Amino acid sequence: IQLLDKHAIAVLVRLLFFPQVLKKNILSKVLVNLSENARTRTDIFNLLLGILQDGTGDLSSIDRSFAQISFRSKPSAQATPKPASKITLPQPEVVPELVAQRCLDALSFVTGANEASSVFFLAEQELPAGLRRAPSKKGKGKEKQAPQTYYPIVLLLAQLDRQSLLRTPSLMEAIVGLLALVTRPLASLKD
After folding, report:
1. What is the DSSP letter of 90?
2. 35 confidence band (pLDDT: 50, 70, 90)
3. 17 in helix, strand or coil?
C-alpha cells in the first residue's frame, strides 16, 4: 500500500532543498521509511534524478525543475498550476551545487539504508511522464506507443561528464560514493 501520492512525495522532496534544513536527518529517515514501498521508492528516485539531471545548471533551470515537480505531481482536479516558490540564497552561484549535493545526499542515504534501492538503479525503468519525448507523427493510423525506458545508472554516469559538477570535489565524491553503493550488488554476481 502506497502511503503517499506523488504530490505529497514532491512536497517532501522539496523540503530537502530549503537552505536551512533544521531536521534534515529526520526528513532523510522519513524518505528511507517511505522507500520501503517499491512504488514510492520509484517516485522518490525519479523526482531526485529528474532534479539532478535538469535542475543543476543555473537558477532558471532550478526554478523550472521545481515548477515541473509541483505541476506534474499535483492532482488533476486543479486546472491552473501555481508557480512554485523560488529558493533564494545570498550567493546565487552556490545554488546549483547545493541542489546537486542535496539530491546526491538523499539518494545515497536512501540507497545505503535500503538494499532494494540499488536494484532500482541497475534495472530498466519506465521514463516518468514529464521526461518522455513526444511521439513522432510518422505513419498513419493509431500505433500503440511503446513505453519509453531508461537505466538510472546511466543517468548517474552521465553526471560525470558535466563540467559544473566536475569543478566541485565534494560533488564528485558524492557521485562516486553513490555509484559505489548502487553497484554493490554487482559484486555478488561475480562470485
Report:
1. S
2. very high
3. coil
Gap between the Cα atoms of 6 and 19, Å rounded: 23
- For residues 143 and 41, give the distance between their C-alpha atoms in angstroms, rounded to a whole number: 31
User: Rounded mean pLDDT of the chain?
Assistant: 78
Question: Whole-angstrom Cα distance, residue 166 to residue 172?
Answer: 6
Q: Is the pTM of this model over 0.85?
A: no
Amino acid letter, 127: L
How far is Cα 121 from Cα 153, in angstroms, rounded to an integer? 5
Neighbouring residues of 120: CB distance < 8 A, sequence distance ≥ 6:
41, 42, 45, 152
- Please, what is the angle between helix 95-113 and helix 24-34, to 10°? 50
Q: How far apart are CA 106 and CA 16, in angstroms?
A: 8
101 within 8 A of 174, measured Cβ to Cβ: yes
Residues 6+ apart with CB under 8 A from 164: 56, 57, 96, 97
Exposure string for 61-73, b = 16+ CB within 10 A, e = fewer: ebbebbbbbbbbb
Asked whether 142 and 33 are in contact (CB, 8 A), the reply is no
